[in-house]
Structure formats: structure tokens, C-alpha cells
Amino acid sequence: MAKVTVLLCFCVLAVFGSVKAHTEKGKVGIYELKRGDMSLKFTNWGATLVSFVLPDKNGKLIDIVLGYDTINQYKNDTTYFGAIVGRVANRIKGAQFKLNGHTYKLVPNEGKNMLHGGPKGYADVVWEVTKYQNKGHKPHIVFSYHSFDGEEGFPGEILVTVRYTLLAENQVTVVMKAKNIGNKATPVNIANHAYWNLGGHNRGGILSEKIQIFASNYTPVDSDLIPTGKIEAVKGTPFDFLKPKAIGSRTKQLPKGYDINYALDGVHGGKIRKAAVLHDEKSGIEMELSTNAPGLQFYTGNMIKDVKGKDGFVYKAHAALCLETQWYPDYLNQPDFPQSIVEPRKNYKHVMLYKFSTH
After folding, report:
1. What helix, strand, coil percent values describe the chain, rounded to 5?
2. Which residue from 1, 44, 230, 332 lies 20 to 30 Å from 9 (Cα-Cα)?
């Protein structure tokens, strides 16, 4: 998929301490959060997670997310490595939807459909850094973006913020918020598109990692990966990860890998509950993910093909996986799916909590 780029200042900033003032408009930088042996780096291009370094079971520091060495590579990226995607993540059939009696035509960027907000979604804009503190009890950074009425065809004007916070005991929160400041209702479904390999970004593959997904049902898709509208049980299918299993244990049934939405269990009143647990035997690192969102897109990097990443390492298919908590794909055209429509003066809030340990 081709992406639209914007001519901006290409400088990379080394930023330390506490930043109270807003970033200079149009400038793109690199920012670090550090607590103990855990270090996260970001760029405000796409509010993107660039690196995630922590010790394995032997104390060796490894980087467990895919990414690039330069800002320019992120600007030309087609994989969404580490980015925040929206206004509506995942796919919208026919790049259109109806809301309050009006049909909205969006900008397609995957055949006739829209993916992750269109050719210039939130992954391809400069976010403002409005809060930044890389020391103290809770190191954090807040990215903000003003999404205008009509952007990529979406109605309504919203203010979006994404806050990454390092908590005690190897925990990280990602809080994505949006406030509708316009006079039109609008769909909002913002997602984090990090690519994880708990053995290290340069380890080579994730098919041996074990995953548990707390979902009894999934949403089947057609040949364009658009949900059919059905919600079916995972039992007796290759999508059943209710108990921990190696990701590559069903390669004969699904040779290309996974790219599917799970209907998470325990969706009651938007409470945060466990969505998935991922474990790598060699590194000993385990990642537990919790969320308040109703869905989880499990994607095994099927379409990665010879992408030159960090330190010149070449990423191939299944080099990493994505666990994107979200509202279901194409929910705007599926009235029986959970809906995320933000009315004027109302708010959207999407929370992810990561807990890391070694075993």
C-alpha cells in the first residue's frame, strides 16, 4: 500500500528531562522513557513506538519490537511498525459507511476498502508532544493530534491524545483518548500497531512463541479480510488459543498465518480485563496484555517481505506479531458488532496495559 508523505523537517532530536512546552510545529524527534532496565523510545511521527528494550531471563538486554533506524524510513513505511492508527483502525468495506442518515465516502487505500484510516491516517502525521517526563516515579509521554472535520472523509473534528506511561514492576500503559469538539457524530477506533518478537527484533520469527487469547469467539472474514458479520466459536478451529499453544502449531491449516479479529471474553461496561498472554521460551520473556476494548486483532506479520529494519536486519514473514486491541473491523457496516461512535462534546477512551515478566 502506498502512503502519502509530507515534506517536513527531518531532524532527529535528542530530548531529555521534563518537557513542559509544546514541540515546535512540524519537527520530528526521538524521545525516550526509562525506568530501571526498561527503556522505550518513540517518535512523534505517527506517535510511534521505535524500540522496547528490557532484560531477558539471563539479564541480557534485548529490543522486542520491530522498527527502523531513521525517521525517513518511518515516513516511507508500509507496515505500520509501532504506529498509532486511526481515525478508524482496521478495515472498512467499500471505504464508506452510513451514520445518522448520511453516507460518508472515505479514501480507499487497500483496493476498494479503507485500512487503518486511509492513505494518510494517524500513522502518517506529525503529532505534538504536549507532556514529556523521562524520570521520576512514572515516566510518561503524551502525543496530541488535531484531526479535522473531513480528514480522509471522516465527519467531525476531534482532539486525540495518546499517553505512554512506565509503571512499577515492568508495566506499561497506553491510553488513547479522543474528544469530539465539533458538531457531528464520528466513529473513533484508535489502535496501537506494535510488532512484537519477545526473542528480540532480530531473532527471525515468532512461530515458536506460545500465545493464549482470552476469546471464545472470532469474526470470520471474506477474501478481502472483511468480516462476514458472523461471530463464531473458536472451538474446533485453528483460531482456538483459549489454552496456550505455539503460534506455528497449525501451519498446515493456516499456512499463511493469522490476521483475524477475536471477540474478547468478559466485555462488560468497558472494564479492563486480560486479552492475551505471549511467552518466548528462549528469552523467558512473557507479556500479558489487558484492555477495555471488545476486540483483538491477531496478526502474524504475514505480509512482511524483506524489509530492512533496525541495525540493517532484514525482516521476513512472521518476523513478529501484532496484538491490536480494537473495536471489530468494519463495525460501521455491521450493526450487530459493538459500536464506537463519539457524539459531539463526548469522549472516547481506549486503554492497554502490558505486564512483563521472565520465566
Report:
1. 5, 40, 50
2. 1
Q: Within 20-171, where are the H helices?
A: 71-75
Q: Bridge-partner residues for 342, per DSSP? A: 186
Other CB atoms closer than 10 Å to residue 153's CB: what's the count? Answer: 18
* Residues 194-210 pLDDT 10s: 999 999 999 999 999 99
350 labeled part of a ligand binding site = no
- Ligand-binding annotation for 250, yes or no, is no
pLDDT, one tens digit per residue, over 118-152 is: 999 999 999 999 999 998 889 999 999 999 999 99
- The verdict on whether residue 302 carries a ligand-binding annotation is no
Q: Is 324 a catalytic residue?
A: yes
- Please tell me whether 183 is known to bind a ligand: no
Active site residue 201: no
Strand partners, 144: 128, 161
Counted residue by residue, the chain has a size of 359
Q: Are 244 and 279 in contact (CB under 8 A)?
A: yes
Residue 191, helix vs strand vs coil: strand
Q: Which is the catalytic residue, given 209, 318, 324, 350?
A: 324
Q: At a CB cut-off of 8 Å and minimum separation 6, what does 317 contact? A: 257, 301, 302, 303, 304, 305
